[in-house]
C-alpha cells in the first residue's frame, strides 16, 4: 500500500519570507498570545453556555416536580435543551471563532502570517478514496527535536474527550451502586446475569444480521463486521438513562432490579463483544473455535474480574477506615472515600476490565461495609455528594448528547439506516426477552410475568455508554453514520420510550409510587422475618448485621447465596466493619492472635457493653 | 441455553468471508481504532496515577494531623509527591507511549503506513532561530473541506489545559468566600485594597526593573517587556496556597484577613497588569501618559466590575431561592447553588473581567444571603460539598504543579534567572510592605504592628494562579524560562516559606491556635456589644440580622461601611432572605404594592409570630 502524501514542503519554503522581518519571532509570539486568549475565551463561553443551560434544566426539573407534570421526562427535556443549544451554536455561533485554518494543499501563501491553527494533510491510498487528516497546533514550539517524545507525554497529561467520559459516567454508576436496593438486586441476580450474557449476545448478533439483510437489500455498502460492531454497541441498555427515567417512578422492586441490573452489567458484555468483533479483522482469516472459546473466556474474565476488583477495592477502603482513626477528620475521610471509589473505576480500565462493572460493585461494597465505619458527618456527606454530583453529571451528559447532534461533524446522517436500526434493535430485543423469560420461568419463583416482559422490552433505553463507544472511532464515513445513528437512537429511546414510560407502566398495570412500596413491604413481611421495615427508605441503615433466617426468603433457598450470607455475617462484616459479633467470636480460638489484631476497640467496647445495653433496653421497655 | 450459543457460532464462522475485503481504508480504520484505544489507556493510566497519589496525600495529611507533625506543611508534601511522580513518569514512563511522530521535513515516506499522530512544521525566520510547530491529529478525517469550520467548533467544545484551570481554581476561591470571616475581612478592606492596588503595582515594576538590571549585567537577552510581564504574574500571591498554609493555623484574624485578602484580590491586578504590558508591544512605541491612564482605569474597571458581577449573581441566586419553593427539593436546590456559583466565575471570564474576584464575592454574597434561604439539608450539603471539593482540587493542583516540573517540556530551566528572581521578588515585596504599612498606620486603628509586616513579607507564597498565567503562553525560549522559573518560585515559596510559617509565627510571637481565638473574642467583646460569640466557629449563623450598634466598633466609624450596614439590614437582607424586618416594615408605605410582592410568606409568618415568640422567651427566661 502506498500513500501519496501531499506535504507542506511549499510552506517550509514560504514561511521564512513571510516571517522575514527582524521581529519575526515577536509576531509569532504575539500570535500565540492571541491564540491562547482566544482559546480561553472560547472554552469559557462554551462552558458558560453549558452551565447556563444546566441552571435552566434544574429550574425546569423543579417546575416539573412542583407541578407534577409527568408526560415528558426530565432527561428528555435535558436532551431537548441540548439540541436547542447545539442548533444555536451551529447556526449562530460561527462568529465566535477567531482561529484560522491553514490548508496545506491549497498553498495560499499570502494568507500565512501566523502559525496556522490547523494543518490538513491529504492522503490518497491506492484503490481508496481521498482522505484528509486534520492537525491542531499544540501549545508551544521547540527548536529541539529530542523533546518530541516528552511533548507527547505532556499532551497525554491533559484532558481529552475520552477523559471527559472517564469523569462523567463513573460517579453516576457509583451512586447507583451506593444507593442500590441490594436485596432485590441480588435476589434476581440469576435472571439478570442470564439477560446480560445471553440476551445481550443475541441482541448484538440479531441486530447485526438484520441490519446486514436490510443494508444488503438496499445496497448501502456496509461490511458485516461494521454492522456487528454497531450491534454490539447498541445492544447495551444504559444505566444512566434507566436510573434517570425509573428512579422517581418507584416501580415494583423486582422489575426495577431486572431492568437496572441488565443496564448496569451489560456494558461489560457490549465492550467485550465490540472488542472481539474488532479483532476479527486483524487476522482476516476464518474464525476458529479457539477465537470463539477465547471470546467466552473473555466475557467471563472481564465481567467477574471487574466485579471482584471493584468489590475488593471497596473492601480495602472499609478495612482502611476501620483500622485507622481517620473518622476523626471527616473531611479527609470523605475525600478518601471519593478518591478510592474513583480508583476502582480507573484500575479496571487500566487492566482492560470494564470500569462500569467495577465501580458499581465498589459502590455496593462501600454501602455494605465502609458506610458503617464512617463518621456521622461523612455518612451524610458522601451520600449527598454522590447524589448531587451524579445528578449534575447526568444532566450534563444528556445536554452534551443533544448539543453533539449539531456541533460535532463526525456524525453522518442516514435516515434509512436509522429507520432500519430502530426496527432491528426492537426486533432483536424481543428475540431474547420473551424466549429467555420463558426459559427462566421454568425454574424461577416468583416467575417473570408477561407485563414485566413487555416492560423490559419497552425499557430498552440507550444512552451515554453507546454514545461514548460509537464516538470513540469515527474515522470512516460508515462509522460516522453509525455514530450519528447511535446518537439518534439514544435521543429517540430517551424521548419516546422514556417519555411514555409512565404511561406504559399504567397501561401494563405495574404498581408504582407508594403502591409499589407498600406492596413490597407486605411481601417482605410475609416472606421473611428479617427486619426489612425501613429498607425502602434507606438500605444503608443495616448497620448491625442480624443473623439471617435462611429458608424463609425464596432467594435464600439457593446454595451459593446462603453460603455467601453466612460468610458475610461471620467473616466479612466482622473483619471490615465495627459490627458485632467480632472475628474473635466467629472464628475458632486458634486464630486468636490474628483476630484480636483485627478487632477494633469499638467492636470490643460494643461487645463488653452489650449486656448493659440489654439491661437498659429491658428497663426502658 | 446451549442451542443459543451454537446459533452464534454459525454466525461467527460465516462472518469472515464477508469481512475479507481488504483495502487501504480498512488499515487506516484499524490504525485509528488502535490510536483511540491507546489514548484511552494512556489517559486512564495518568488519571489513575494522580488519584493514587491523592489517596497517599490524604492518608499522609491524616497522619500529619493525627501525630501533630507540623514542620513540613501538607501542601509542601503534596508538591513533593507531585515532583516524585513527575520524576517517575519522566524517566520510567516513556515505555507507555505507543504513538508515533511524523516529522514533515524528513520526508521519510516509506515509514508512513498509518496516519502519523503528530506533524511537525519547521519554520526559520530570517534573523531568528529555527522554530517548529507541533500539530496533533484530530479525531476523524473528512473528504469534505466545508466541514473545517465546524471541526473547529467541535474542538473547542472539549477540554483543554485552559479549561483544566477553569475547573480547578474556582471551587477553592468560592469556598474561601463562602467560609470567610466577613467581619475581619471588611474591617481591613481599606488596607487590603491599598496593598492590592499600590503594593502589587510596586512589586510588579520593582521585580521587572531589578530583573532587567540583573539580566542586563549578565547579558541574558531578555527584553524589558518580558521581564515586566514576569513581574506582573509573579507579583500576585496565591489564595489557594495561602488558604492551605494558614487555614489550620488560626492566626490572629486581622493578620489573616490582610494576608488572605491580598492574595484573593491581587489576581485581578496581576491579570490587568500583564494584559497592559502585553499591549505595550502592539505599538512598540514609548509608553504615553494615556496608556498609563487607561491602565489605571483598567484596574478599577476590572476589579470593581468583577466584584459587582459576582455579588450580583450571588444576590440573584438568593432572590431565586427566596421567591421559589425550590427548597422543597434539596437536591435541586444544592445543584442550583453550585451551578450559579460557578456561573459567576464564567460570566466574569467571558466579559474580560477576573473570575477569581467575581467568584470570591459571589461566595461572600451566597454566605450572607442565600445561605439563610436554603433548606437545612442544603445548608449542610453546600458547605460540605465545597469544603471537600476545594480540598481535593487543592491537593490536585499542588500535585499537578509538582508533576509538571518533570513532565512538561515547555519549561526551560535557568538557575541564574531563578536565583535573581528570588532576590528580586523578595526585595520588591519588601519595597511595598514596609512603606505602605507606615503610610496606612498614619490613620489606621489598630495599627499594623511590625510583626504583622514581617509576616506579610514572609507570606508571599505564589501558587496556582502564577503557574497558570505563565503556562498560558510558552511560545519563545524566554517565556519557557519564565514558566520554569515561576514553577520553581511556587515550589520554593510553598516548601520553604510554607514549611517555615509555623516556626515564623512562633518567632514573631503572633498568636495562633486557641490563643488567637480567645484573644479575638476578648477583643470583640470589649469593643462591640453585637453578638459575636460564636462567630469564629461559624460565621454563617448570622441568620437573623440584628440592627447594628454603630460607633462601638472602630471599623464602624467609617462613613461608607456604616451606610452599607444600614442599607444591608434595611433593604438587602429583607429583599433577599426570609429575615425580618421585612421590606414592608423597612420601606415607606408608598412602596407597599411592590414590597408585599417581595415579602415571602415565611417572613410574614415570622412577623406575625414574633410577639408570641417574645412572650415565650419571656416565660422561659
From TrEMBL, chains A, B:
Annotated localization: Membrane
A Pfam cross-reference name: Na_H_Exchanger
GO cellular component: plasma membrane; recycling endosome
Domain Cation/H+ exchanger transmembrane, first and last residues per copy: 70-504
Gene Ontology MF annotations: potassium:proton antiporter activity; sodium:proton antiporter activity
Membrane topology note: Multi-pass membrane protein
Keyword Plastid: no
PANTHER family according to UniProt: SODIUM/HYDROGEN EXCHANGER (PTHR10110), SODIUM_HYDROGEN EXCHANGER (PTHR10110:SF187)
Protein name, per record: Sodium/hydrogen exchanger
Amino acid at each position: 500500500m502506498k500513500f501519496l502524501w501531499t506535504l507542506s514542503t511549499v510552506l517550509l519554503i514560504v514561511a521564512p519570507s513571510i516571517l522575514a522581518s527582524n521581529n519575526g519571532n515577536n509576531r509569532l509570539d504575539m500570535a500565540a498570545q492571541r491564540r491562547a486568549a482566544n482559546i480561553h475565551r472560547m472554552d469559557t463561553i462554551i462552558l458558560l453556555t453549558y452551565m447556563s443551560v444546566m441552571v435552566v434544566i434544574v429550574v425546569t426539573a423543579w417546575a416539573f416536580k412542583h407541578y407534577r407534570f409527568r408526560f415528558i421526562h426530565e432527561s428528555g427535556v435535558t436532551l431537548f435543551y441540548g439540541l436547542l443549544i447545539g442548533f444555536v451554536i451551529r447556526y449562530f455561533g460561527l462568529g465566535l471563532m477567531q482561529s484560522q485554518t491553514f490548508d496545506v494543499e491549497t498553498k495560499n501563501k499570502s494568507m500565512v502570517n501566523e502559525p496556522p491553527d490547523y494543518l490538513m494533510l491529504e492522503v490518497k491510498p491506492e484503490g481508496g478514496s481521498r482522505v484528509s487528516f486534520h492537525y491542531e497546533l499544540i501549545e508551544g514550539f521547540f527548536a529541539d527535536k529530542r523533546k518530541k517524545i516528552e511533548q507527547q507525554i505532556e499532551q497525554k497529561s491533559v484532558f481529552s474527550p475520552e477523559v471527559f467520559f472517564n469523569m462523567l459516567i463513573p460517579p453516576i454508576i457509583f451512586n447507583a451502586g451506593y444507593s442500590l436496593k441490594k436485596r432485590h438486586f441480588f435476589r434476581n441476580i440469576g435472571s439478570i446475569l442470564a439477560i446480560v450474557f445471553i440476551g445481550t449476545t443475541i441482541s448484538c448478533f440479531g441486530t447485526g444480521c438484520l441490519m446486514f439483510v436490510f443494508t444488503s437489500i438496499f445496497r448501502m455498502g456496509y461490511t458485516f463486521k461494521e454492522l456487528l460492531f454497531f450491534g454490539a454497541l447498541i445492544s447495551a441498555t444504559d444505566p444512566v438513562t434507566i436510573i434517570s427515567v425509573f428512579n422517581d417512578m418507584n416501580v415494583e422492586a423486582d422489575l426495577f432490579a431486572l431492568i437496572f441490573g441488565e443496564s448496569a452489567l451489560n456494558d461489560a458484555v457490549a465492550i467485550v463483544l465490540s472488542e472481539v468483533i474488532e479483532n476479527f479483522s486483524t487476522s482476516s482469516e476464518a474464525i476458529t473455535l479457539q477465537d470463539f472459546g477465547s471470546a467466552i473466556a473473555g466475557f467471563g474474565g472481564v465481567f467477574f474480574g471487574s466485579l471482584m476488583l471493584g468489590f475488593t477495592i471497596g473492601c480495602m477502603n472499609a478495612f482502611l477506615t476501620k483500622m485507622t482513626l481517620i473518622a476523626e477528620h471527616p473531611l479527609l475521610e470523605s475525600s478518601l472515600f471519593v478518591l478510592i471509589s474513583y480508583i476502582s473505576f480507573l484500575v479496571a480500565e487500566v487492566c482492560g476490565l470494564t470500569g462500569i462493572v467495577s465501580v458499581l460493585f465498589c459502590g455496593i461494597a462501600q454501602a455494605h461495609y465502609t458506610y458503617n465505619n464512617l463518621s456521622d458527618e461523612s455518612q451524610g456527606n458522601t451520600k449527598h455528594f454522590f447524589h448531587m454530583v451524579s445528578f449534575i453529571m447526568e444532566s450534563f451528559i444528556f445536554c452534551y448528547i443533544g448539543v453533539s447532534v449539531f456541533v460535532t461533524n463526525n456524525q453522518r446522517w442516514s435516515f434509512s439506516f436509522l429507520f432500519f436500526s430502530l426496527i432491528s434493535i426492537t426486533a432483536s430485543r424481543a428475540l431474547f426477552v420473551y424466549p429467555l423469560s420463558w426459559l427462566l420461568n421454568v425454574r424461577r419463583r416468583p416467575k417473570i410475568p408477561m407485563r414485566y416482559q413487555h416492560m423490559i422490552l419497552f425499557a430498552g433505553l440507550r444512552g451515554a455508554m453507546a454514545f461514548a463507544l460509537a464516538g470513540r472511532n469515527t474515522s470512516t464515513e460508515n462509522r460516522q453514520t453509525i455514530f450519528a445513528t447511535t446518537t439518534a437512537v439514544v435521543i429517540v429511546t430517551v424521548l419516546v420510550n422514556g417519555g411514555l414510560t409512565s404511561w406504559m407502566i399504567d397501561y401494563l398495570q405495574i404498581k408504582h409510587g407508594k403502591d409499589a412500596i407498600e406492596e413490597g413491604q407486605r411481601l417482605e413481611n410475609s416472606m421473611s422475618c428479617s427486619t426489612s421495615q425501613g429498607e425502602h427508605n434507606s438500605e444503608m441503615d443495616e448497620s448491625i448485621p442480624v443473623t439471617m433466617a435462611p429458608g424463609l426468603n425464596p432467594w435464600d433457598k439457593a446454595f451459593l447465596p446462603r453460603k455467601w450470607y453466612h460468610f458475610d455475617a461471620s467473616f466479612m462484616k466482622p473483619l471490615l466493619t465495627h459490627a458485632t459479633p467480632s472475628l474473635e467470636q466467629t472464628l475458632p480460638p486458634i486464630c486468636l492472635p490474628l483476630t484480636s489484631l483485627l478487632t477494633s476497640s469499638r467492636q470490643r467496647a460494643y461487645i463488653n457493653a452489650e449486656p448493659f445495653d440489654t439491661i437498659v433496653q429491658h428497663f426502658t421497655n
